[in-house]
Design a protein that fits this description.
The complex is a heterodimer. By secondary structure, chain A is an alpha/beta fold. Helix content of chain A is 25%, strand content 22%. Chain A contains 12 helices and 20 strands. In chain A, α1 packs parallel to α6, α1 runs parallel beside α12 and α4 (131-145) packs across α12. Chain A is globular and about 65 Å long. In chain B, α2 (38-51) crosses α3, α2 packs across α4 (80-99) and α2 packs across α5. The chains are: A alpha/beta, B mainly alpha.
């Protein structure tokens, strides 16, 4: 193994920099530069620790962003953006880019509700993860990223119509808090923010980590954690070419402490590929949960100029107790049109109504619907199994009906519910009653697997969870996990902010434990 | 012996007939095609014609919107495992009508060889099937073609959802990262190029479109 020149402190390396096999040393190696990994890397570097941050994807600049939805997904998402679960077939996504999912998500940053965190503590033998415990960490991350409610002047009609509909029905609604500074309402969160307004990790925490001395290695895929006894010694893997994924030179990073933040679908694969590591509880890869999402498109009498406005600008938390959250939504038309019914001239007619449309979605807390992550043969991609529980289908059904109510209260002239067996278009709330009354199966819904959790869950009991309340693996002294896999249960709302708050707390503890 | 010979001849004839029926008789591919084979190109073209016929509420047809060319580029760009699944999808739809014929005379032909009305009927059958997997086939196929149709600048302009032009801001991260796949020496910005960050001025709805989406753009 040859050893390439070590880059200077506070540097970023890209694919073209790797000329052969190499080794690095650090106090802490962080695997994954998504929201949680980036927070840990920065916070540790800021305390003077030697940090190496590893990321499989490349950094993207605005010049690399592609506005065409399909091509953008192919470049920035794993498996070309076409990853699906087995069992109930649900599409789901994982980014492959510096900054991870924060580059391609719509920056939604609500705090987890008190009740959800209390349920974590009660059901999973945790004692320091209440909302009160996490609030200081939410505050720190929120200040760093400028998290604030979306201002009205960049909402655009399709977001404000949602607010109006909620108001008419007496439902609560609020501008979505986002990690954004200077949003111009381009609606391009999913293909990359050309205004550089979204504070994705590649423009916020990662540069800060570099300034603080962290070394950031992109286009490197970690495949295994090496251990001796109860200690992790190093991570090993391969350099991978952007977009093609072709594996090249080998690398090894030795560190006094390893933090896995590769994401809920990748971290279990690394552990299982490392000789079933940290798995005395046999919970690694199990308990996979999503926030399954459903959506309705409504057509209004007046133009909604849907291409203008924050990608997701308004939400309603009114129904969290019933198990769902409502949001507005915009995506490249090519992606949204997947839900448009029909084909031929009728399909074109419906597409022509896009300028008058708004799409709103619901994400559901489906605790009963569980899945599993296992490694795919000869690949670091996961195999995902997932089953949507009939009781959770009822939650989604109820959410669809509430969305229909809001659409008609906001003045929509028709809606497209996108449910098999129901009329493709409904013109009144009376007609939409069928959404509420029909017996639905999971396969009747056009459903997406948003967010992902719990595959390395935290639990106070080492026989029931992979990590403890600090994210430290029960089985190893210096191996931590810092992604949404450690959530013991889904968080009821979009998880990025909660993941970062937990990572912020973890980083403080790790810094204290690393002399 | 003659019986055996007859059986063998029948077997060979069936194999030749089957081979021709399944795999031969497709038009030559356009020169610039990247990965689609003749059969796949014909299938995509056949679906595109049924799904995005000329005229109607949005003038360009699937062909005029370059759906075939898009699908070719798209399939070339996805990871190998996904590409294989897409090709299996195309094969399934193209050959299924040999076993489950389309309505009307001559319905037991490959999908791409059917009359357009028959193709519409076949797709409608997939779309409204009570079997989830059949609907999934339709949804997957339509999603791929739809992404092509709605990637076309003239279609997006017609719908009024073409992307706006946005001035390039240059911030600190732009001094750190080169374009994807290039060395750090390709970073084209220096400190002197830094601009103020976005001030949050909403985009002008009447503002210019992104250069790639303007009238007359390539």
């Amino acid at each position: 193994m040859t050893v390439a020149a070590t880059p200077g402190e506070g540097e970023v390396r890209v694919f073209a920099d790797y000329t052969g096999d190499f080794q690095e040393e650090a106090d802490a190696v962080v695997v994954g530069s998504g929201p949680t990994g980036a927070v840990v890397a920065y916070e540790l570097a800021a305390t003077g620790k030697r940090v190496v941050l590893l990321e499989e994807g490349p950094p993207f600049t605005p010049d690399d962003f592609v506005l065409e939805g399909a091509r953008s997904m192919t470049r920035t998402l794993r498996e070309g953006g076409l990853r699906t679960t087995r069992g109930h077939v649900v599409p789901t996504m994982q980014a492959i880019a510096l900054g991870g999912g924060s580059l391609m998500n719509s920056a939604i940053c609500p705090r987890a509700p008190e009740a959800a965190l209390d349920a974590w503590c009660t059901n999973f033998e945790l004692s320091r993860t209440t909302r009160k415990d996490l609030d200081p960490h939410y505050d720190a991350v929120g200040d760093f990223l400028g998290i604030a409610p979306t201002p009205d002047d960049v909402q655009g009609p399709r977001n404000l119509l949602f607010r109006d509909g909620c108001r008419a029905l007496g439902y609560s609604s609020e501008p979505i808090p986002r990690n954004v500074r200077g949003c111009r309402g381009s609606g391009e969160c999913f293909t990359g923010c050309r205004s550089r307004a979204k504070q994705s990790m590649d423009v916020s925490y990662v540069p800060a980590a570099i300034r603080a001395g962290a070394r950031v290695l992109t286009s490197v895929r970690v495949e295994r954690v090496e251990t001796t006894g109860r200690r992790a010694d190093a991570v090993v893997g391969r350099v991978v070419e952007p977009f093609t994924g072709k594996a090249g030179a080998r690398f090894r990073v030795r560190a006094r402490l390893v933090v896995l933040a590769a994401g809920c679908m990748a971290t279990p694969v690394i552990l299982l590929r490392s000789g079933n590591l940290a798995n005395r509880s046999e919970q690694v890869g199990r308990n996979l949960q999503f926030h399954p999402g459903v959506a309705i498109t409504g057509i209004f009498p007046e133009p909604t100029h849907p291409q203008f406005g924050a990608t997701q600008g308004y939400q309603s938390l009114q129904f969290l107790d019933e198990g769902f959250k409502l949001e507005t939504l915009w995506a490249p038309p090519a992606v949204l049109a997947v839900r448009t019914p029909g084909f031929g001239l009728a399909f074109k007619e419906r597409l022509a109504e896009v300028p008058y449309s708004a799409t709103w979605d619901a994400i559901a807390s489906c605790h009963r619907s569980l899945g599993r992550v296992t490694p795919r043969r000869r690949s670091m991609d996961p195999v995902l199994h997932y089953q949507l529980h009939p009781e959770d289908v009822k939650i989604l059904q109820r959410a669809l009906y509430v969305l229909a109510e809001i659409f008609f209260a906001a003045g929509a002239r028709k809606i497209q519910p996108g449910v098999h067996g129901l009329p493709e278009e409904m013109h009144s709330l009376a007609e939409a009653d069928a959404i509420r009354t029909r017996a639905m199966r999971a396969t009747d819904l056009v459903c997406g697997g948003n967010h992902a959790f719990c595959t390395t869950r935290m639990h106070g009991d080492p026989t029931k969870g992979v990590v403890d309340e600090d994210g430290q693996c029960h089985d190893l002294e210096n191996l931590y996990i810092a992604d949404t896999g450690i959530f013991p249960r889904c968080s009821s709302v979009n998880p990025m902010f909660t993941g970062m708050a937990l990572a912020h707390r973890q980083a403080g503890l790790i810094a204290d434990r690393l002399p | 012996m003659p019986v055996r010979l007859l059986l063998l001849a029948a077997l060979v004839a069936t194999a030749v007939w089957g081979f021709r029926r399944l795999l031969l008789g497709y038009a030559v591919l356009p020169a610039a095609t990247q990965v689609l084979c003749r059969r796949e190109w014909a299938l995509v073209d056949g679906v595109s014609e049924a799904m995005f016929p000329a005229g109607g509420a949005i003038p360009p047809s699937g062909r005029e919107a370059g759906v075939n060319e898009f699908v070719d580029r798209y399939v070339a760009g996805v990871p190998a495992g996904v590409r294989l699944l897409m090709r299996m999808l195309f094969l399934l739809v193209e050959q299924a009508t040999l076993f489950f014929p389309a309505p009307g005379p001559g319905g037991r032909r490959r999908f791409s060889a059917l009359e357009v009305e028959q193709r519409v009927a076949v797709l409608e059958g997939w779309r409204t099937s009570s079997l989830f997997l059949r609907r999934l086939v339709f949804t997957s196929l339509r999603a791929i073609l739809c992404m092509g149709y709605l990637a076309d600048p003239q279609v997006l302009r017609h719908l009024g959802v073409a992307p706006y032009d946005i001035e390039r801001v240059v911030l600190e991260p732009d001094l750190l990262y080169p374009p994807v796949g290039q060395p750090r020496s390709a970073i084209r910005f220096r400190e002197a190029d830094l601009t103020p960050p976005s001030d949050g001025t909403p985009l002008d709805l009447d503002g210019p479109l992104h250069p790639d989406y303007r009238e007359g753009s390539p």
